[in-house]
Design goal:
Layout (H helix, E strand, L loop, with lengths): L2 H4 L2 E2 L5 E5 L2 E6 L2 E6 L4 E6 L2 E6 L4 H22 L2 E8 L4 E5 L2 E5 L6 E4 L4 E4 L5 E6 L2 H13 L10 E4 L13
Protein name: Large ribosomal subunit protein uL6
Subunit structure: Part of the 50S ribosomal subunit.
Function: This protein binds to the 23S rRNA, and is important in its secondary structure. It is located near the subunit interface in the base of the L7/L12 stalk, and near the tRNA binding site of the peptidyltransferase center.
Length: 177
């Protein structure tokens, strides 16, 4: 039994949800998000509560039950609070700055890296060594942060590169003489 799927999703004030077929649309102060569930689950909206139930006892129905409930809960969190990923830049001369909608990165290459912020994501650089990615879509925020990190992933000897704020870099010992 899915312990996640059993719990209903509460809609806070200022958030509305509508259902058309298997598509749930959630509107809130930070935007609108939609999710189309598979035919293995039944979604119901009563007052300010969204519930998800499986259709049958098949393995796929039980898998989709918890996943669909989590997707709806993430949409509600996204339109109320939003999602945020923080990145840190370590390394001599490595820095980031915003110019309009473009993130300019100096990462030790012979050229600057220009990263365009996609629609629905806000990128800020409060310091030269910090990048903050925010948005209502959890998957998109995580993907944008991963794409930025990919330009110079942290290396294990000195830890130079772009890392998540809460990420631990396992350090290796250098060569011995």
């Amino acid at each position: 039994m899915s312990r996640i799927g059993k719990r209903p999703v509460e809609l806070p004030s200022g958030v509305t949800a509508s259902l058309s077929g298997q598509t749930v649309e959630v509107k809130g102060p930070k935007g609108t998000r939609t999710f189309t569930a598979t035919d293995d689950v039944t979604i119901k909206i009563d007052d300010s509560v969204v519930t998800v139930e499986p259709r049958g006892k098949s393995k796929r129905a039980r898998q989709q039950w918890g996943m669909s409930r989590t997707m709806v809960a993430n949409m509600v969190q996204g339109v109320t609070d939003g999602f945020k990923k923080e990145l840190e830049i370590n390394g001599v001369g490595y820095r980031a700055q915003m110019q309009g909608n473009t993130l300019k990165l100096n990462l030790g290459y012979s050229h600057d890296v220009d990263f365009e912020a996609p629609e629905g994501v806000t990128i800020t650089a409060p310091k030269q060594t910090e990048i903050v990615v925010e948005g209502a879509d959890q998957q998109l925020v995580g993907q944008v942060a991963a794409n930025i990190r990919e330009w110079r992933a942290p290396e294990p000897y000195k830890g130079k590169g772009i890392k998540y704020k809460d990420e631990y870099i396992f350090r290796k010992e250098g060569k011995k003489k």
